[in-house]
Amino acid sequence: MSKFNQPLSGNEMPRFAGHTSMFRLPIDASAEGLDVAIVGVPLDIGTSNRTGTRYGPRQIRSESVLVRPYGMATGAAPFDSFQVADVGDVALNPYQLDKSIDIIERRYAELLTHDATPVSMGGDHTIALPILRAVAKKYGPVGLVHVDAHADVNDEMFGEKITHGTIFRRAIEERLVDPDKMFQIGLRATGYGVDDFDWARKQGVTVVLAEDCWYKSLQPLMQQVRDVIGSDHPTYLSFDIDGLDPSVAPGTGTPEPGGLTGSQGLEIIRGCFGLNLVGCDLVEVSPPYDTTGNTALLAANLLFEMLCALPGCIRR
């Protein structure tokens, strides 16, 4: 018998029944004794287009019943490697974004005192900023792998400095991330000016347009990511589901055509194995626009792959 928590098997309880925690793992209010804490952050008051991502964590948990405990392609066995539990959702203030930002940062600071690696599900992308603030307080400026259709480096939106489209400018300005060890992958579509992606490049960020990823494996790119960031530098993975094409992930707030394929999303996350990942997130799943549940199902599988990419995950 494993010494670690195990997902409830579909052969013990039908997948349409039982409790709806992430991967049907035990629920724990505290991160004490955990190696990995799975956290929901049901925020969508930082978004600028479609709302609905507040329902993301609940729907991803529901679809996660279909995820089994072993990665057949990689041989990864995260639930034999780490003590993992679902620590529930951050109790946000649904009326005020600034208060919610503070609540998120405090919750993650508390989780990190237990040395648990946070693996988070949003919620809109605004959640990454307070998470990075907490992470950087512990580790210093981190490397960053950022998958997205959008650079999220606006200076402001409607006069607001913190929204889901400004967070990585704030993160660089606040020295939460090291731009020389930051990759933005999947950026595309239309913009407000031809220089929309140039601010990040000028800071030292490596920008990989979606068009540069079309019709190819991303394994060579991920080798470059590992070479530049290195195996020791604390690194964070932030994955906006709209980095993928709407044909595979339609249930999101700001879909853009011409995105990454589902298999390329898997390649990116699997390619993070070998980095010193100290946290991950999967954001911007909006169930009201996900009529089949396929976006949330894909998100659940990507979160499983994040567990498999963490340092120390057993590969059989």
Structure description:
The chain has helices at about 55-65, 80, 95-110, 130-140, 165-175, 200-205, 220-230, 260-270, 295-310; strands at about 35-40, 85-90, 115-120, 140-145, 175-185, 205-210, 235-240, 275-285. The model has no long low-confidence stretch (mean pLDDT about 95). The protein has one domain: Ureohydrolase domain (Arginase, Chain A), CATH 3.40.800. Helix 8 links the parallel strand 7 (about 235-240) and strand 8 (about 275-285). Strands 2-1-3-8-7-4-5-6 form an eight-stranded parallel sheet, with helices on both faces. By secondary structure, the protein is of the alpha/beta class. Helix 3 (about 95-110) packs parallel to helix 4, helix 4 runs parallel beside helix 5 (about 165-175) and helix 8 runs parallel beside helix 9 (about 295-310). It contains nine helices and eight strands. Helix content is about 30%, strand content about 15%. The chain is globular, with a radius of gyration of 18 Å.
